[in-house]
Amino acid sequence: MKFYVPLVLWLLCCFPLSALAGDGHPETFIGPGCPFEGCTYQSWTVAKDTIVYEKPSQNSKALGTLKKGTKVEGKYGEVHSIAAPFLLDKDYRKDKAGETIWLYTYYGLGFFDYWSKGKFKLGSFGLSPYGGLRCTLGDCVGALLEKPKFTWWAKVSKKQGLQGWANGFDFTDQDGFGEYDVQGWSY
Fold first, then answer.
1. Binning pLDDT at 50, 70 and 90, where does residue 3 land?
2. Does domain 28-80+150-172 have CATH number 2.30.30.40?
3. Which helix (H) or strand (E) holds 8?
């Protein structure tokens, strides 16, 4: 009995049970970078008044507000994703048609981080989270069962010293290809 109490306490303390969903895939994932192709970290313009936080979380300390029209430097970012189930219509690599895999961070041109068979991998699925649940970018291997949900946190700094994390979709001038105005996107 004395052996079980410390073991149970250790499991409750040190093993993140809430991070795993029923089939073993992580419920959330933090990926580096940007959530679309052509995204560049450079001089950006604030598209609407935006709160800057100490850490990439709305629960962290607010450091100040950037006013619309202010120029900032976009430094780097993180994409906080919630697992989106993807049902395979055909075999994909080592996964078989009829299996469900889990999509996370979108990088552009159909590429996502995904979870399959106990591992994170990078793959192309012929779709974009901005196109809804359907395949829009080429050869489909399946279908999203739910719309992907993610938050893009960008580390930004202003010349006058304010530096911290903000919602990456609250800025313009991020697309190196000049094709998208991502301001106002939210997923």
1. very low
2. yes
3. helix 4-14
